[in-house]
Amino acid sequence: MPLYQSQSLQIYNSLSGKKEPFEPLNEGYVGMYVCGPTVYSNVHLGNCRTFMSFDMIFRYLRHLGYKVRYVRNITDAGHLVDDAEDGEDKIAKKARLEKLEPMEVVQRYTVDFHTILEKFNFLPPSIEPTATGHIIEQIEIIKVILEKGLAYEINGSVYFDVAKFNEHHSYGKLSGRKLEDMIANTRELNAQDEKKSPQDFALWKKAEPQHIMRWPSPWGDGFPGWHLECTAMSTKYLGETFDIHGGGMDLKFPHHECEIAQAEASYGHSPVRYWMHANMLTMNGKKMAKSTGNNILPGEIFTGENSILSKAFAPSVVRFFMMQAHYTSILDLSNDALLASEKGYNRLMEAVDTLGSLETASKSDFDVTVWKQQCYDAMNDDFNTPILIAHLFEAVKHINLIKEGSEGISATDKELLKDTMEAFVFDVLGLERKGDGTDDSNMLSGVVELLIQLRMEARANKDFATSDKIRDQLAALGIQLKDGKEGTTFTVS
RNA sequence: GGCAUCGUGGCCGAGUGGCUAGGCAAGGCUCUGCAAAAGCUUGUACAGCGGUUCGAAUCCGCUCGAUGCCUCCA
Questions:
Q1: Which nucleotide is the nearest neighbour of A37, by CA and C1'?
Q2: Topology match between the domains A3-278 and A282-428
Q3: Which residue's CA is nearest to the C1' of nucleotide B2?
Q4: What pLDDT, in 10s, does the model give residues A276-301?
Q5: Closest C1' nucleotide to A49's CA
Q6: Which of A271, A308, A419, A484 qualifies as a FRET site for A350, CA 20 to 30 Å off?
């Protein structure tokens, strides 16, 4: 029996504003679409947080036994620098600035994106489609919307008619906006603007002669609007209605609102059952964004080459830091917070490592079965990873007590504890052991074990000058010795 | 200006009517040749002001502050 049948997952649905029991469209199967990056520059840490949240969600759904089709797109066309009439495609702009073919820009930053995500131990999505690979599908959707009379063509561009759509649908229901408020608060319509109303958005944009990225269409050469690609690709791979649509909070309006409008206009019904939005990562209290310069690249964190943090941090530490906050909360990055997370992460990992070598007793002093369900309850409550981690630290405490001999654990419970810990730490949270089994670390541990032997002999002879010298000089190299009841172990910082 | 969200102990962060997470840091104790590590333990926080209630950090109102969206952004 798959796990999901015995666990009751609740998901916060941005559309209803409530936590709802998760019931997929087809039992046992989940379709999930997440808006991926626009590959016009290096992925920054804020981007990574959103994708990491959904990576965790993907992992937990799989862990529950669902067969998940996870689609995360690559936006390689159609994303304009701004909404003005002379709006330039982000990729095309970057290509012009760097004197590259647009697809060189796309290739370069797609590779960067994948490299960084791999370091963070992301699972690859089931399908990673590109906007440029689905131009035909996008054109087909535009045709349908035009036929329904909910879009209009002007000068080779096609715009979605928001006012007309709003007559029979409700535009703004996801972001909690009313069309009349939006109209009331809009700045003066630009005189050159060819749109009927500022709220209308582009489905297809005419390509000016100098525009390199262009495709033929019934309305002339041009390129698709940004919002359309997600509708085209989610429909193609997940159907007209699918279970989960995710993305960053900042995409709620207008991007996701427009997706709903496009789908409802084309198919006559709402496309998504559960809308999920991951919150922003801030730094120094401000949103991280490429446009403001308030951002840090993951690579700069891993190497320590940045002016914000005091030292380098491993990808798993950053991941742990992010998992300590709920995905719907704003999280603020700081040096102190990362330092605290690093210590917590190390303590957790050390406990996981010692788990296997614990001695067993006839009975257990803590109820592993109850604890295990508490872990599931935390995750079932809208993927509450901070609560899960709190429970994991409960287990850490018990593991250390058992190691010291203050508590006991039965052989069966030990197996259960080990399996559960490893499932949540590695499979669900996606953390990784550091320094596992490489040749270098094997050689290092051999050398350190030798020094530990020498130090023990010195201590036995009460030659504390020698024993302390070994300990202190190893410490200076970042190797910490720990004297326990069972002998001396070490950690590398 | 409009629409949202949020304001929790030294720091980071859960919780959303009574039982009041967790991590890091700090103090005390145990262990130790001394340390470190580990364990035990202490600290009683919810922006302010009103209101509802037997009881509110949690609900309502107002004030102040922060952030996000309203134009591209994960």
A1: B74
A2: no
A3: A185
A4: 999 989 887 787 877 777 888 999 99
A5: B74
A6: A308
Instruction: Tell me which residue has tokens 């964190």.
Output: A301
As a whole-number percent, the residues of chain A with pLDDT over 70 amount to 94
Angstrom distance, A12 CA to B59 C1': 21
> CA(A253)–C1'(B3) in Å?
11
- Distance linking the first and last C-alpha atoms of chain A: 42
Q: Which residue has the tokens 């190691």?
A: A403
HSE at residue A324, side-chain half, CA atoms within 13 A, is 19
Using C1' positions and the CA of A337, the closest nucleotide is B12
Cβ atoms of residues A429 and A319 within 8 Å? yes
pTM over 0.90: yes
Per DSSP (E only), the strands in A210-316 are 222-224, 242-248, 272-278, 281-283, 286-287
Which one-letter amino acid corresponds to residue A134? H
CATH numeric code, A3-278: 3.40.50.620
Predicted complex ipTM exceeds 0.90: yes
Indicate the CATH number for domain A282-428.
1.10.730.10
CA nearest to A272, candidates A236, A237, A239: A239
- Which stretches of A131-225 are DSSP H helices? 135-147, 162-168, 179-184
Token pair for A251: 């995409």
**Phi, psi angle pair for A353, to nearest 5°:** -70, -35
Find residue A71's DSSP bridge partners: A33, A127
Q: Where are the domains of chain A?
A: 3-278, 282-428, 440-492
Given the DSSP bridges, would you call strands A29-34 and A242-248 parallel, antiparallel or unpaired? Answer: parallel
* Model pLDDT for residues A9-37, shown as the tens digit of each residue: 999 998 888 888 999 999 999 999 999 99
Pull the structure tokens for residue A270. 């709402």
Q: Is A68 exposed, middle or buried (0-12, 13-18, 19+ CB in 10 A)?
A: buried
- The Å distance, CA of A92 to C1' of B72, is 14
